[in-house]
């Protein structure tokens, strides 16, 4: 039997925890203010405490250091109706065990009680400096994200952030850095998709003078620049396979060898990666090394698309409006109808699209009130997913195959039609894949779902070998 204290001014919360706790065989004592709770604590030190953040008089966060002083071994679960990133960070920083966002279910309470009593205070330290409210979100999904950011910041493990474009992956990476122990060291953000594929390796690892035609002097790469701090690799799935191998080596050995160099430079950076692609899928398709994913994916944060958390739209709109008010030094408001309209839209471009829409509307709203007619037209899904382009390529291919077949028949070239078509298609596909996969048969075999020796045989058959192609 454990001794549990609940400090909350909402009697229904006290009641629910008391009822469940008693049912589980624990002794539960309740208090409705922090002051009463501290008195209770002087009488008996509980095995677990539930503490509301918003209390009349002294707040839960103010009471927390006193609780820790009186009863240092007691795991504390913070309860908040207004959970935000700062609360999450502060909660973890102060060594609280967990925090619950209202409304929560009986199952949530039971999970927390079971975990706390089993583990007895496993919370870790994070630094509180530079707390900022850049990441906005009141939805439960975002509260979970804040909680994971706080936990990620308290460790130095590699982190993978997954989410559609515009969901705030870079902001999350910045927050992990800002709240972490390396916050006063560099934060180096690199969007791999924005680099020319042929330059990715030298941009990441640097190069020595003379390594290639334009390498007129030694250059430090992003990995070296991030030394001591955090390296954020956005769109990490776009790193070519050979460079992935080099990145893995650098992470394992904490040493960076510049392109054209022979000696490695010791470096120590924390790596945070992001991708809008499912990296496990990329591994299945052979475009991402499984050992690298294994190395990077110690802890994952998934950012839900904005359309799955519409309750975040009003606070985000007000956040962006507030920033514009400050930038343009003029008050800005939004009509209820315009806000309703924004809440209804699917936001395939996520928060970035919403931010752009607010900025667009602000320019047109000369009176300072954003109305429906000031909003831009919703952007088509295909614009973000590229499905229309892909469909039209597929359509073109189909049409071309029909056209080619007709032409062959017309010209009386029907002999071995199937074999001729197959070799035509195979050759083009293999040629493209050899280029994409830097000549590695194994990677091509994974993508095609056929055996490596078949790939090799076919490449030889079509004369696609070149002396500089590496055989994995
Ligand atoms: N929760 C949020 N609160 C406030 N601003 C946000 C939030 N999420 C995203 N933004 C804003 O939306 C824009 C896009 O965010 P960010 O660049 O972090 O997204 P991303 O997921 O990294 O996008 P991409 O994958 O395209 O690089 C930025 O202006 C960012 O400030």
Molecular structure report:
One of its GO terms (biological process) is regulation of DNA-templated transcription. This is DNA-binding transcriptional regulator NtrC. Its main location: cytoplasm. The protein is of the alpha/beta class and 472 residues long. The chain folds into 5 domains: 3-133, Response regulator (Rossmann fold, 3-Layer(aba) Sandwich), CATH 3.40.50.2300; 155-303, Rossmann fold (3-Layer(aba) Sandwich); 329-378, Helicase, Ruva Protein, domain 3; 386-411; 416-472. It has 20 helices and 14 strands. The protein has a 5-stranded parallel beta sheet, with helices on both faces. Strand 1 (3-7), helix 1 (11-23) and strand 2 form a beta-alpha-beta unit. The termini are far apart. It binds adenosine-5'-triphosphate. Adenosine-5'-triphosphate binds at residues 135-137, 163, 165-171, 234, 276, 316, 319, 351-352, 355.
In short:
This protein is an alpha/beta fold. It has 20 helices and 14 strands. Strands 2-1-3-4-5 form a 5-stranded parallel sheet, with helices on both faces. It has a 5-stranded parallel sheet with strand order 7-8-11-6-12.
| Bound ligands, named by name, code or SMILES | adenosine-5'-triphosphate
Could you tell me the mean pLDDT?
85
Query: Roughly how many Å apart are the termini?
Result: 60 Å
- Unreliable runs, pLDDT <50, ≥5 residues? 120-133
Q: What's the helical proportion of residues? A: 40-55%
How are the secondary structure elements laid out?
Layout: E1 3-7, H1 11-23, E2 27-31, H2 34-43, E3 48-52, H3 60-70, E4 76-80, H4 85-93, E5 98-101, H5 106-119, H6 140-153, E6 159-163, H7 169-179, E7 187-191, H8 200-205, H9 222-225, E8 230-234, H10 241-253, E9 255-256, E10 265-266, E11 270-275, H11 279-284, H12 290-296, E12 299-303, H13 313-328, E13 333-334, H14 336-344, H15 350-364, E14 369-370, H16 381-385, H17 387-410, H18 417-436, H19 441-448, H20 452-461
Parallel strand pairs: 1-2, 1-3, 3-4, 4-5, 6-11, 6-12, 7-8, 8-11, 13-14
Antiparallel strand pairs: 9-10
The protein binds adenosine-5'-triphosphate (ATP).
Adenosine-5'-triphosphate is lined by residues 135-137, 163, 165-171, 234, 276, 316, 319, 351-352, 355.
């Amino acid at each position: 039997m454990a001794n549990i204290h609940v400090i909350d001014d909402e009697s229904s919360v006290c009641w629910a925890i008391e009822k469940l706790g008693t049912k589980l065989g624990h002794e539960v004592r309740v208090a409705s203010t922090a002051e009463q709770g501290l008195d209770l604590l002087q009488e008996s030190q509980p095995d677990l405490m539930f503490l509301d953040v918003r209390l009349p008089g002294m707040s839960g966060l103010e009471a927390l250091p006193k609780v820790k002083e009186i009863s240092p071994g007691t795991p504390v679960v913070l309860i908040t109706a207004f959970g935000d990133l700062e609360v999450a960070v502060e909660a973890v920083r102060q060594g609280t065990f967990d925090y619950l966002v209202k409304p929560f279910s009986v199952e949530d309470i039971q999970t927390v009680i079971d975990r706390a009593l089993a583990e007895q205070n496993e919370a870790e330290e994070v630094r509180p400096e530079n707390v900022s409210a850049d990441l906005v979100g009141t939805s439960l999904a975002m509260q979970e994200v804040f909680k994971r950011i706080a936990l990620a910041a308290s460790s130095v493990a590699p982190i993978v952030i997954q989410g559609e474009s515009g969901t705030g992956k870079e902001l999350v990476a910045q927050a992990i850095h800002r709240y972490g122990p390396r916050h006063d060291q560099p934060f180096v953000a690199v969007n791999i998709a924005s680099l020319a594929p042929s330059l990715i390796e030298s941009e990441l690892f640097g190069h020595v003078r003379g390594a290639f035609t334009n390498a007129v002097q030694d250059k430090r790469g992003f990995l070296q620049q991030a030394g001591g701090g955090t390296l954020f690799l956005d769109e990490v799935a776009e790193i070519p396979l050979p460079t992935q191998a080099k990145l893995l080596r650098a992470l394992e050995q904490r040493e960076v060898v510049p392109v054209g160099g022979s000696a490695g430079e010791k470096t120590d950076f924390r790596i945070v990666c992001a991708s809008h692609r499912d990296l496990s899928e990329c591994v299945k398709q052979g475009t991402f090394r499984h050992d690298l994913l294994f190395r990077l994916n110690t802890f994952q944060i998934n950012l839900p698309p904005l359309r799955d958390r519409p309750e975040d739209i009003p606070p985000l709109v007000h956040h962006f409006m507030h920033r514009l008010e400050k930038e343009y030094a003029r008050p800005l408001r939004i009509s209820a109808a315009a806000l309703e309209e924004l809440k209804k839209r699917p936001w395939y471009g996520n928060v970035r699209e919403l931010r752009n829409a607010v900025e667009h509307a602000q320019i047109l709203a000369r009176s300072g009130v954003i109305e429906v007619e000031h909003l831009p037209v919703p952007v088509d899904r295909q614009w973000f997913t590229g499905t229309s382009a892909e469909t039209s390529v597929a359509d073109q291919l189909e049409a071309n195959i029909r056209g080619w077949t007709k032409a062959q028949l017309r010209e009386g070239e029907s002999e071995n039609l199937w074999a001729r078509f197959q070799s035509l298609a195979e050759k083009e596909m293999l040629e493209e894949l050899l280029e994409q996969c830097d000549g590695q048969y194994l990677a091509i075999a994974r993508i095609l779902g056929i055996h490596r020796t078949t790939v090799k045989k076919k490449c030889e058959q079509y004369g696609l070998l070149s002396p500089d192609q590496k055989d994995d």
